[in-house]
Structure formats: structure tokens, C-alpha cells
Specification:
About 70% of the residues lie in helices and about 5% in strands. The protein is mainly alpha-helical. The longest helix has about 45 residues. The radius of gyration is 28 Å and the shape is elongated.
């Protein structure tokens, strides 16, 4: 009975500690939500290639033993070509009158990181446009290449696939490097004012997957070109052999 009582006490203590932890996190969530509401800013801002979205975490910014916060997007900006996300301008616009980023001790290093993002975003937009156009032409060329039996089709399709590969590869590399640098700078200098950043893993996965697919397509068309030449050589040899 003593051992059983001790075991029950341990379970009860563990439940009590979990309950206390959840209560504390719940109170912290309420405080964070209250501060954000007082400043009139959102919990998160999600940057994309053409726009950005903002919203709140539900049920709160912090997770507990049973519930992880979900992103509740409340608004997105209009999609714009050559867009770049400027968190300084976005947050300053939402702050209540009389409150400035200087009052919040907004790090100047984040402004420098934003300038880097502006240049990189414009370059990425152009490269993704080139990559998308070349990919579309490569898909159309692949359909025509299946129907034709000439050597020109594999060469043209390889050129289109290689162009798409080059554009998407450079854009993906820029995105990876810039994301790492910006996330590092924001987390390094923004920790004191409660600002953090994280990489868009889904976007990086998609852009590198597209790059890898175009690399496979380029190699496949090279293989098709070599195989076509071998078939032609075999036909010529058999034809000459038949004459003798």
C-alpha cells in the first residue's frame, strides 16, 4: 500500500505541475496578447514573394502540453510585382498614434537586413519569372519532342530545361542565403524587444524541388539526344551492310 500510495502521489504531483505550467503559459499568453493589442500590432507577419500576410496565434503565442498555437491569418496585402517585405514599415503603420519604433527600441540592424532583402527579392522575382517561362516552354517542347523524331527537339528542350535550371537554381540559392542571414540578424538583435524570425521551410522545399526536377529534365534530354544519335548510327550501319 505504501508503494502504491507513493506512485499515486508522483502521478498526482506530475499532473499538478503540468496544470501549473499550463496556467502560467495561459497567463503569459494573455499578457502577450494584451501588449500586442495595446500596441495595435499583430502576433506574426508572414513574408511571401508577391505579398505578406499578418494575423494572430490561437489560442496564444505559446504552446502547452496539449495545444500548439495555430496561425490565424487575418489579412494579406495586395500582390505586387517586385515586392519586398519591410517589417519596419508594416509595424510602424499599425502602431497607435504617439508610439514609434524608437519607443520600442527597434534595432537598426533589422533595417539593414531589410535593405538586403529588398535587393534580393527583386532579383529573385526576375529569376523566378525567367525560370517559370522557360519551364513552361520546356513542357510544351517536351510534348512536341515526343511526337517528333529529329535531333533538334532534344537540343532545344535541353536548352530550355538548362535555362530554367539556371534561373531557378540561382533564385533558390539567393532565397536560402538571404533567409539564413535575415533570420540570424533578426533573432540576434530582436531578442531584446521580443522579435523573432523563422525560415519558410515549405517555400524552400518547393523551390529546391523545382530546381532538382529541372536538373533531371536537362539530363534526360541530353540522354535522349545521345540515344537518338546512336539509333541513327545503327540504322546507317545496317543499311550499308545490307547493300553489300
Amino acid at each position: 500500500m505504501l508503494g502504491r500510495t507513493t506512485l499515486d502521489t508522483s502521478t498526482s504531483s506530475s499532473s499538478l505541475l503540468n496544470s501549473i505550467e499550463n496556467n502560467i503559459k495561459g497567463e503569459v499568453n494573455d499578457v502577450i496578447a494584451g501588449v500586442a493589442k495595446a500596441l495595435n500590432i499583430h502576433d506574426f507577419y508572414s513574408a511571401h514573394l508577391l505579398n505578406y500576410c499578418e494575423g494572430y496565434f490561437t489560442p496564444g503565442p505559446l504552446s502547452n502540453k496539449t495545444v500548439d498555437p495555430d496561425k490565424n491569418v487575418t489579412q494579406c496585402s495586395n500582390r505586387t510585382a517586385l515586392f519586398h517585405f519591410d517589417p519596419t514599415a508594416a509595424i510602424q503603420k499599425e502602431l497607435k498614434p504617439g508610439i514609434s519604433l524608437a519607443d520600442l527600441r527597434w534595432p537598426s540592424a533589422i533595417k539593414d537586413a531589410v535593405h538586403t532583402v529588398e535587393i534580393a527579392s527583386k532579383a529573385m522575382f526576375v529569376l523566378y519569372c525567367v525560370g517559370a517561362a522557360a519551364t513552361g516552354l520546356a513542357l510544351a517542347g517536351a510534348f512536341l519532342g515526343v511526337l517528333s523524331d529529329g535531333r533538334a527537339a532534344p537540343l532545344i528542350n535541353n536548352a530550355l530545361a538548362s535555362l530554367a535550371l539556371l534561373a531557378l537554381g540561382i533564385a533558390s540559392a539567393i532565397a536560402s542565403v538571404i533567409m539564413s542571414k535575415v533570420v540570424h540578424e533578426v533573432n540576434k538583435h530582436g531578442n531584446d524587444v521580443g522579435i523573432s524570425a523563422s525560415k519558410g521551410k515549405t517555400f524552400l522545399g518547393m523551390t529546391w524541388a523545382a530546381t532538382i526536377l529541372m536538373a533531371i529534365a536537362a539530363v534526360a534530354w541530353i540522354y535522349e539526344f545521345v540515344a537518338h544519335r546512336r539509333r541513327q548510327t545503327s540504322y546507317v550501319f545496317e543499311g550499308k551492310k545490307g547493300r553489300y
